[in-house]
Amino acid sequence: MTSRLRALAAAAASVPITLFGLVLVTFLIGRVMPIDPVIAIVGDHAQPEIIAAVRAELGLDRSLPVQFVIYVNKLLHGDLGRSVMTSHTVVEDIRQFFPATLELATAAILIAVLLGVPIGVLAAVRQGSRIDHAIRVVCLAGHSVPIFLLALLALLVFYALLGWAPGTGRIDVAYDGLVPPVTGLLTIDALIAGDWDVLTDALAHLVLPAGVLAYFSMAYIARMTRAFMLDALAGEYIITARAKGLSAARVIWRHAFGNIAVRLITVLALVYAGLLEGAVVTETVFAWPGLGQYLTVSLLNADMNAVLGATLVVGVTYLAFNLLADFLYRLLDPRVT
Amino acid sequence: MSAAAPPGLRDWLLTDAPASRRQAAWGRRYRLWRDFRRNPLAMAGFLVVVALIALSLAAPLLATHDPGQQELTNRLAASSAAHWLGTDELGRDVYSRLLYGGRITLGMVVAVVGLVAPLGLTVGCIAGYFGGAADRILMRVTDVFLAFPRLILALAFVAAIRPGVTSAIAAIALTAWPPYARLARAETLTIRNTDFIAAARLTGATPWRIILRHVAPLCTPSLVVRVTLDMSSIILTAASLGFLGMGAQPPSPEWGAMIATARRFILTQWWIPLIPGIAIFIASLAFNLLGDGLRDVLDPKQR
User: Fold this and answer.
1) Contact status, residue B4 vs residue B35, Cβ threshold 8 Å
2) Per the confidence metrics, is the pTM higher than 0.80?
3) Chain B residues interacting with chain A (CB cutoff of 8 angstroms)
4) Which of A64, B172, B224, B298 has the fewest CB atoms lying closer than 10 Å?
């Protein structure tokens, strides 16, 4: 046990270094940009004294290392600067937009797990059969399809042609702002407020983007589940279990699946992190007011504070999920030392 | 593709006692090819990739129109004899744009891979072979770049320079090399302690010679598999950048940018945004199928 604790501690010790690298990369990206942040704030025609004053106020007249120290210091005090576009602080903006992305990603991973795990198990149990090949093709398609194509197709078919789904956005205008924001997750907030109309509407808006986002993750989860299961099913204890006369379902789910569950959990943590990426494109197509859309709109407006703040937040979240995967794996799997 | 090699050549290739190094090498390649050919999905991927390359190279010959030529009186037309895939919002021929777009997409893939594979291989081999401080520093840097989701880092990077094909290539390359370094390092670690490396060291070979002549070639098969599988994700990232307005810029016929400009017609002239989307899908699927097949042949233990 002590060796495992030591391994955990070593993994934890690497976090600050990676974090530091993350901040440094973000900082450097912000400093090579061709748009002068001062001009972006005061405009083209400001007087030289004002430009100089603002430059000094932002600390841009100092050397690069000093600027970095200032940047880190501000960061430690929770200051990511102000967005030129929304004129709020970036932290406020992110607090407002992040829950929408969290809700979308969580819904997507729920769908992906509920579909991907059974499909993967089925493919492994029926290895080499027609079902296995069909699943392989479906999964490969999931890896290959550009997510914006899928999103546009989904809108075309389920919104325009069939009329099954509401259009873009998070909620119908009529319901907007009806439930008090507690968590920022509309479905949860509606549940807390006990407002069924809002809940139904929010869920209806959620299904299409979450489904689109889930496809890619589902493909990956199914593929990993299949590989893990094939591994597990080849074990001698499976032959023993079968020889004992246990039912096929018990052998598959209890003996084989029970052994891969931990490895799957780590895969899930990684997939969840990867969803942040897909969310950027999905949110753009579905006009979903999340962090991804905030990032793209800021990008197109050259709102560098917002871009870097959002990038940093996404990077830190991504890192956290990766770490979580690592920790869970080490903690839960008794075979890892 | 071509059927089996002619009998004489086949015997030469498949002999159990090759007379020269060259014969042994070609014999191995032929056996791999025979294994690969048995997998219909992989062959389909291979053929589509070859077709894509041929179509892109021959774009000027095959195109029926100039991809930039506008014909405003004939906007958003459906498929016809004059415009095989219809026209876009400026009356440009979609079929011709698609062909030229393939050049951009494949060109970006080649450029990224050309930058990334040697870089990742070098970093990974050095880290793995020398170990110690070099390993720790290089792997820490790799970790930092792995800590960003690929598309997000690429977006921020492109925004910092200037949207366009060149910066998109640089941005994707910046985010794509770490997995290669990891892979090459892992391979190097297993090779480092083998007897033939020790023998090479005893004969006085320098570390650089060992890395270049003995370690790197052995890392190549798994790297090739990884590169092929990665090409599909490079295509998707490039298209996503284009779609978000951060990659190739209009009027460039890059597929992602084509969808971005035609997006607003999805509910009326739905085929205009869908056609380049399907092209992206086919290209990406083909590389995935090819990569899968190559992995089965070159790297059977990873199946």
Assistant:
1) no
2) yes
3) 41, 140-141, 143-145, 147-153, 155-157, 159-162, 232, 236, 239-240, 243-246, 256, 259, 263, 266-267, 270, 273-274, 277-278, 280-281, 284-285, 288-289, 292
4) A64
CB within 8 Å of chain B, chain A residues 292-331: 295-296, 299-300, 302, 304, 307-308, 311, 314-315, 318-319, 322
| Residue partners of B107: CB distance under 8 A and separation at least 6 | none
Residue with the two structure tokens 């919002």: B89
The answer to whether A22 and B144 have CB atoms below 8 angstroms apart is: yes
**Using a CB-CB distance cutoff of 8 angstroms, which residues of chain A are in contact with residue B141?**
21
Find, among B103, B95, B111, the residue nearest to B56 by Cα: B103
Name the residue facing A21 among B144, B153, B244 (closest C-beta).
Answer: B144
CA distance B300 to chain A (A): 13
Are the C-beta atoms of B150 and A314 separated by less than 8 Å?
no
Counted residue by residue, chain B has a size of 303
| Whole-complex ipTM | 0.82
Cα gap B48→B296, rounded to integer Å: 19
pLDDT tens figures, A67-79: 888 888 888 888 8
Asked, as a colleague might, if the bond just before B179 is cis with ω within 30 of 0, I would say: no
B7-14 and B21-37 are packed helices; what angle lies between their axes, rounded to 10 degrees? 110
Contacts of A22 in chain B (CB under 8 A): 144, 147-148
- Whether residue B194 contacts residue B267, with contact meaning beta carbons closer than 8 Å, is answered with no
**Dist CA B99 CA B90 (whole Å):** 17
> Measuring CA to CA, which residue among B115, B100, B120 is closest to residue B166?
B115
Residue B123 near residue B181, CB atoms below 8 Å: yes
Contacts of B300 (CB under 8 A, 6+ apart): none
Q: Do B285 and A156 touch (CB under 8 A)?
A: no
Answer for the pair A133, A126: CB distance below 8 angstroms, yes or no.
Answer: no
Chain A partners within 8 Å of B136 (Cβ):
none
Give the span between the Cα atoms of B149 and A277, in whole angstroms: 6
The DSSP code for B249 is P
How far apart CA A233 and CA A254 sit, in angstroms, is: 12
Asked whether the beta carbons of A82 and A88 are under 8 A apart, the reply is yes
Tens-digit pLDDT profile for chain B (303 aa)?
455 667 788 888 888 888 888 888 888 888 888 888 888 888 999 999 999 999 999 888 887 888 877 777 777 777 777 777 778 877 788 888 899 989 999 999 999 999 999 999 999 999 988 888 888 888 888 888 887 778 888 888 888 788 888 989 998 998 889 889 988 998 898 888 888 888 988 898 888 888 888 888 888 888 888 888 889 989 999 999 999 888 888 888 899 988 888 888 888 888 888 899 999 999 999 999 998 888 888 866 554
Phi, psi (5° rounding) for residue B294?
Answer: -60, -40
